[in-house]
Write a structure and sequence with these properties.
2 strands; mainly alpha; globular; 5 helices
């Protein structure tokens, strides 16, 4: 996995990483297998270690409960991300985190704001 992440970094020069923090709870217990939670925690740990490995990279980890109420389908559509993630639930969740980070942490305009051209 780290090889894939380094390849993405070499091709794009990733400076900001936003991802969903794994929260152990009722929904995590409903996974398709008992090992799914462990694999997810391992993967998140690898991403976090890679992301924090570069001093210049900013890392933002947030729970779904923090991001989803704001990063609605309406906002994703206004940002042009809803159709791109059609049928891909996890990609759509990743888009929510990316949009939330872009607006909240990087100062981009809220796609529903007048500043972004919304009416």
């Amino acid at each position: 996995m780290v090889t894939v992440l380094e390849g993405i970094n070499a091709a794009t020069g990733v400076e900001v990483v936003a991802y969903e923090r794994f929260v152990v709870g009722r929904r995590a217990g409903q996974s398709s297998s008992a090992a799914a939670g462990e694999r997810t925690r391992t993967m998140v740990g690898e991403v976090e270690a890679w992301a924090r490995g570069a001093q210049w990279r900013r890392v933002y980890a947030r729970s779904a409960a923090e991001v989803k109420p704001w990063a609605t389908d309406l906002r994703l559509a206004a940002a042009g991300l809803l159709d791109l993630t059609k049928g891909m639930r996890h990609a759509r969740d990743a888009a929510r985190h990316a949009l939330y980070c872009a607006v909240r942490d990087l100062g981009l305009a809220d796609p529903l704001s007048r500043r972004a051209g919304a009416r």
